[in-house]
Amino acid sequence: MNDPSPLLQLERVSRRLGGRTVVRELDLRLARGQVLGLLGVNGAGKSTTLAMMAGAQQPDRGCVRLQGVDLAEQPQRARTDIGWLPERAPLWPELNVIEHLDASARLRGLRGAAVRKRRDALLERLQLQREARRLVAVLSQGQRQRVGLACALLHEPPLLVLDEPGNGLDPLQAAQLRELIRERAAAGCGVVLSTHLLPEVTAVCDRVAILHEGALRHDAPLHAGRDRLLLTLAQSVDAAHIAALTPVAQVQAQDACRYAITLRDDADAPALVQAAVAAGLAVAGVQPVAGELEQAFMRIATQHAASASEQAQAA
Ligand SMILES: Nc1ncnc2c1ncn2[C@@H]1O[C@H](COP(=O)(O)OP(=O)(O)OP(=O)(O)O)[C@@H](O)[C@H]1O
């Protein structure tokens, strides 16, 4: 179901770079409180799309609306209402971390005591206190990434746009980042992130969009994949028998004896087994439908490899 007034909306957005269309006719919506994962093979157009969402690049065609307002008409909204972490956070190497965060906070409209309050809270939250007085120039990649994240979060914007935010973070920091993203989403913030790590997507995102050669090839809620179960029977029955079971919301026959099932919100796997047995069905097993996201990604990536090799042969 579409949110009637999305936080962020891309309307037929296209972008040309180096004489090629690298993002084409993209339609995407993001609701408040939603975390959208943007996936795609290298060069699919993720960073370009995120830069347009963040107001850092302008579409050649189409428009990006934040809370209904075209960003091209009010470009200053990008600085105050969006937290943007590009793939390589552009930091000032000659400032120390505190100076950097204070300057960033003022650029984003914070003044007075709020600057120090937000800066100190983020130094603690992102475990940067020990680096607070060190020059940005001498920080490690993971420390720089956390300074970039702090800059994106300082002004508590309603939209966060994060390009591979886990880059350079150790597993503990990566887990803390996921927690932070979920917290911001719970507070009503919309988040878009790109990553190549599918487990990161399943851990933190509500929805996944996959780009292929700049076009949107997949846009679906993640819970639909996560909640599906594979029911295996020792007999073949018409899918309508399964659909009639109370815990079942949707059923799709996979082959003669296996059925992919979406449960109703209040149901779980034991309830499904109980209902099936009570209906006289010979249940051989129930398990989660594995790796639907991986399957979607691999299908699209394989097409990419095939079309690239056809182009190379034609050249
Ligand atoms: N400044 C530029 N000039 C010309 N072409 C560009 C420029 N920036 C990006 N491109 C091209 O646009 C396409 C999309 O690039 P983009 O960085 O958006 O992809 P991506 O999906 O983020 O890739 P990756 O996963 O490798 O980060 C690529 O083919 C890239 O070579």
Automatic annotation (TrEMBL):
Q: Where is the ABC transporter domain?
A: 8-238
> What InterPro entries does UniProt report for this protein, alphabetically?
AAA+_ATPase, ABC_transporter-like_ATP-bd, ABC_transporter-like_CS, P-loop_NTPase
Listed PROSITE patterns: ABC_TRANSPORTER_1 (PS00211), ABC_TRANSPORTER_2 (PS50893)
Question: What are the alphabetically sorted keywords of the record?
Answer: ATP-binding, Nucleotide-binding, Transport
Q: Enumerate the GO terms in the molecular function aspect.
A: ATP binding; ATP hydrolysis activity
Q: Which CDD domains does this entry report, sorted A to Z?
A: ABC_DR_subfamily_A (cd03230)
Gene3D superfamilies with a match to the protein in the record = P-loop containing nucleotide triphosphate hydrolases (3.40.50.300)
Offer one Pfam family short name for this entry: ABC_tran
Claim: Nucleotide-binding is one of the keywords in the record: yes
Looking up PANTHER family in the UniProt record yields: ABC TRANSPORTER, ATP-BINDING PROTEIN
Q: Which family does the UniProt entry place this protein in? A: Belongs to the ABC transporter superfamily.
Q: Could you tell me what this protein is called?
A: ABC transporter
Q: Which organism is it from?
A: Oleiagrimonas soli
